[in-house]
User: Which sequence fits this backbone?
């Protein structure tokens, strides 16, 4: 893997997916797609089945080929933004501890979503946002292309081989592997093909992730779950950024 001229470095960085990895948004995604499907008179279950394995534009081409894809996308974005403002979100167990312990310059979020939605969801779940978020608007090609993860490595100033990718989905795992990075899978009962290590839950992976980054796990006295809320329901909506 070409390292873009970045010299060898002892720094290790962690690159994290968001939905399904740090935040449980399955119910939100299903609800948004169901509402979108009803607008077009489509079967919600079938639309969601397709949406799970394809990007939105590809989903529209398959389930609504006679519709303007840009209109479809605009409608979907409207529903997603509304859900960020009013929906209930839950961070996976271990997410607050992990993100609260990693040094800010040692990790980044790499997501197929948009940064303002990520910030809204993190605000609602009490999770910290790192200085670097590589979102859908930052790249020409999304996952499973390696571009998002390679961009994150470049901006952090580290080589791909010094990065650990944490993912839950096949497309994200493929992206990390194609970028030449170490890839660990979380929050799945069955390992995603290709992962170097598999953890059934994010919580189980936290000590190993911190060890990779050279950061010791916090002691019970230095980290209190009570100070890091991980789930809110109808909280006041944050402003989009």
Assistant:
């Amino acid at each position: 893997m070409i390292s873009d001229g970045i010299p060898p470095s002892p720094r290790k960085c962690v690159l994290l997916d968001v939905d399904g990895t740090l935040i449980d948004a399955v119910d939100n995604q299903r609800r948004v797609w169901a509402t979108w499907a009803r607008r077009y008179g489509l079967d919600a279950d079938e639309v969601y089945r397709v949406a799970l394995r394809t990007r939105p534009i590809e989903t529209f081409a398959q389930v609504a080929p006679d519709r303007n894809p840009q209109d479809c996308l605009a409608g979907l974005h409207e529903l997603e933004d509304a859900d960020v403002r009013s929906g209930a979100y839950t961070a996976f167990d271990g997410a607050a501890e992990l993100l609260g312990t990693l040094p800010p310059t040692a990790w980044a979020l790499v997501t197929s979503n948009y940064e303002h939605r990520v910030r809204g969801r993190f605000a609602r779940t009490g999770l910290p946002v790192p200085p670097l978020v590589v979102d859908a608007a930052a790249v020409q090609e999304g996952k499973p292309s390696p571009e998002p993860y390679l961009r994150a490595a470049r901006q952090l100033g580290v080589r791909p081989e010094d990065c650990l990718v944490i993912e839950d989905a096949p497309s994200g795992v493929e992206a990390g592997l194609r970028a030449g990075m170490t890839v660990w899978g979380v929050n799945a009962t069955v390992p995603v093909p290709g992962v170097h290590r598999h953890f059934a839950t994010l919580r189980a992976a936290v000590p190993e992730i911190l060890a990779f980054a050279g950061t010791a796990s916090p002691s019970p006295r230095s980290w209190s779950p009570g100070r890091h809320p991980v789930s809110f329901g109808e909280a006041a909506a944050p402003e989009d950024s």
